[in-house]
Amino acid sequence: MSRFISSLIVSLAVVVLIGCQKPVEPIPFTGIEKNYDRPLPAGQWALRKIDASMYPAFGDAWFAAKGTSLGDAVERSLNYLAKPSAQGFFPSGEITHERAVSSLILFREVLARADSPTALDDLIRENFDVYISVGCDDLGTVLFTGYYSPIFDGSLTRTERFTVPLYRLPTGFQKDPQGNPIEGLWHTREEIETSGLLDGQEIVWLGDRFEAYVLTVQGSGFVRLADGSLFEIGYAGHNGHEYVPIGRILVADGKIERHTLSLDTLIQYFRGHPREMDAYLLQNKRYVFFQASEGGPFGCLSERVTPLHSVATDKDIFPRACLAFVDTRIPRERDPSRKRRLRGFVLDQDRGAAIRAPGRCDIYMGVGDSAGKRAGFTYNEGRLFYLFGKEGARLEEAVPVARGRDDG
Description:
Blueprint: E1 13-14, E2 27-28, E3 47-49, H1 62-65, H2 68-81, H3 97-113, H4 117-127, E4 128-133, E5 142-149, E6 151-155, E7 164-167, H5 189-194, E8 202-206, H6 209-218, E9 221-224, E10 230-238, H7 246-252, H8 263-272, H9 277-281, E11 288-292, E12 310-312, E13 323-331, E14 339-350, E15 360-367, H10 369-376, E16 379-389
Parallel strand pairs: 5-15, 6-9, 12-14
Antiparallel strand pairs: 1-2, 3-4, 4-16, 5-16, 6-8, 7-8, 9-10, 10-11, 12-15, 13-14, 13-16
Helix pairs in contact: 2-3, 3-4
């Protein structure tokens, strides 16, 4: 799924790792710009094994970890890893497919045993090796943003109100398993939206052009039909062009104040300046195609993503489906403009067009307007850790995972 919120909001915090000292708390933004999108240098792995003195406080995540949501997310990662196609993405760095699977099974048992924050922290430290993302600066600094699954009003047929189409995958379009066009770049967003070349291949119609734009970069969502039912659409592929964040362009042009930038401000801006949509939206040539879906929303592993327990990273440099731990700040539910500390376990189950570096991570916030507001205000630095079972670590007889299958 492509991520829209990933490049929108102003940075609020800086995290620094110095030598072998324990990472310090986030501090207020200093005004020093970082290149969060700095590519991983050639020949370098995105993860670095760290000493136990640098481990985060895993016990802080005990309460949330004991709920059913994290356990469900773990099972979805195991289901993905059991599919034959998953083995083709390993080894990832020094992580083998076997170690990825055994680490999740071990963590499942740790969750069952840990009866307190201290017990969870102790079990993790005894049984897991911990790695940290090298981040954007080789010091572990990662920019965390948020994404969500929007719900917009629409229709399965064109009406007087709903006139803006979203399209199915074009007839004869050849793609690889990740949805990339095999035959090279396809038509641009402007050509798709203005030429009529996809007439007759509409999957749904919306009433607002910017809402349609959000879906074509978000990659999935829900459309509320006239009878109140929700029609789910999911990612089917894309036209191959690079994602361009229009939020940055609007700030650079002085259209929106950098400290106020969010999805809400973008929606309000284009409602007040509809004639400027061509000038900005078409600068993002990337376009996502859709298919009918159900049971989602799904990440790039074709497994359902879980609010606050699924993240999107660069799948070319991070091990997919594996267990990770985030330490950052996210918006509060009742007041998204205020932040709270998030230390929690997540599964690496998605990717995004704007998430293409070791210094970026997107947290899935959920479905609907409330999740969208939190996603829009998620823009904070922090740290991203990955956990893999130590060699020979074993709490008790491992329970084998069910055999998966490849879809489609």
